[in-house]
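anyone else get weird line breaks when pasting these?? whatever heres mine. first is seq + tokens for prot A
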Amino acid sequence: MVRNKPEDIGQVPDGVPHEPQVVSRSAAVKPQVNQDEQTWTIKAVMRQPATWLIAAFLITNSFVGGTMNSHQVAHMQDVGFTPMMAAMTVSVLSIATIIGNLGFGGLVARFSIRKLVSVAFAIRLIALAIY
């Protein structure tokens, strides 16, 4: 059930011929993940408009998130929270972010990364709208 070596999912170092192994029935089933991915060169990627849109979105998203996080305690104190409650809110938000990142990292092994990124950004937008 636990696959923690590349050999467990059929991967081998470059130059080493792959030798089929006798595996149990449950280990022989390979997950159907990211079957739509292609191999791209850096030049081809840099010519795509989607690359630059994604980069602009990620840079903007990081800037806005960093700005909000750095000013969140002061804002919460301005609206009436105690300094301890404001700091605790930022701590809980940071812990929830770590747990969410680890959770989405585990889901990448089972689902398409394209769909997961879309879900993650949708959750982020909903959270920003609520805030």
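and prot B, same format (seq, then tokens)
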Amino acid sequence: MIRLIHFIIFIALIGQAKAQVEQERKILSQMMSACDNLKSASFILETTERVKQGAVEKGELFVKLQHVPLRMYVHMYSPRVGVEILYRKGEWNNELYISPHSFPYVNLKLSPNNLSVRKESHHTVCDIGFDYLMNMIRHYQSVMGENIYSHLFIGDTVQFELHRCVRLEFDYPDFGYTTQTVKEGENLVDIAAKNFVNEYMIISANKNVDDIYDVKTGEQLRIPTMFGRKIIFLIDLKTMLPLVQEIHDEKGFFEKYEYKSFVLNPTFDPSEFTADYKDYGF
């Protein structure tokens, strides 16, 4: 009789686990579909990033985003007050068109990975939005298969601004580092893209590396085995978009991005992604 009870409990637990996995699979699928179907958005992006010295740096910028073809206007509120940036994928040699509003007081065209543009930022302007992280998830889905859902957990429902959001957490306790050798011509952007990790996390893990170009052929680098030890999404239950994205590594907090005052699918005039638009200072 006792064995029968134990068997019934075991079967019930299996059913409960399967139901939980299906729920998490559904939430993840809905989030990714919502990101794919996004046409345009405007928002204030608040960034919080841990830099190599251990300090936390914050930023705030206003963004107009058109998804396909990718067009972007950015106005920085902090830390570089007043800087304006235009990005039009496939044009201007995929460079950023920048009005620095400070010395040298002329508009510039620079690579998104130019060090004067990135400084200690974890990401480039081109990574703003949801595609960057969704591509990461797709990669790990292909690598991990069904096992990815065993690392997903649905948490509580929380309020973010006026949005009722569900917390979805990816927890990967096997997060660690491997050692790789820098090949000729590689920089950290290449290495991070190849491994589907963030280049700044590589910088943080290697004391002798100060920026994305500070590597040498033959050098041994510690490379993260996963995009993060823990990834937390706050997903708007109305739009299913991840309005908050928070990443942790083995040290704890690494980065957080909050999409505030979010407007879904506004209609932009094409001129709003040109330097001649009346409200811009280019």
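btw re prot B: Residues 6-19 have pLDDT under 50 and may be disordered. The CA atoms of residues 101 and 118 lie 17 Å apart.
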